[in-house]
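Translate sequence into structure tokens.
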Amino acid sequence: MTSSITETEQKASKQWRVLTADDHQLFLDGIRMVLEASNDFAVVAEANNGLEVMERLQECEVDAVVLDIGMQEMDGIETAKAIKATYPQIPILMLTMYTHDSYIKRLIRVGVNGYILKENGQRELVTALRELVKGKKYFAPAVTQAVMRSFESNDNESEAQLTKREYEILRLVAQEYTTLEIAEKLFISESTVITHRKNIMLKMNVRNMAGMIKVATERGWFD
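Result follows.
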């Protein structure tokens, strides 16, 4: 007797399995809608931070991972490192709003397979993932341009430049203000302060706030 296969089972067998990670559930819902509408992909797991990503990867098999950078507890960069160390065969697509060349070059060194921007996500998400599951790479034009610009300029100088807001936060950190106090003083959210602080550390090539203060003091930024 020949076993019957339902239409749903046939469809699922042709779909690539994707894990998505972002700290905003509404954005995860949007990714799911876009991918499932393509009929090529099925979102089999979701996570709000890197720790959850690693847990989900132990629970189910996936063909690709879509990551945001700005997640708390374990951000997208650290998550990408962990995935490549444990599951090197799984392609990683970064879907984020960050275009600073420091982020991009660092993630390329980690070994991510693609990098696209949230502002163009719906148009490029499916296209990028189709390339990744074929074993290819996909980087948005704006991402490629950012990397090229960084190579055309002095790399060390470009990464050391802080924005006015980043400099304000750096000075407040040096004055021992807490994240909450900085947020209240500058009328921004705590998560925004955390994001700026990560950007500063990346640009200064340091791992923590003590390193930020040490490098800034050595360069005379507080004089």
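Note: The beta strands are 16-21, 41-47, 64-67, 92-96, 114-117, 138-139.
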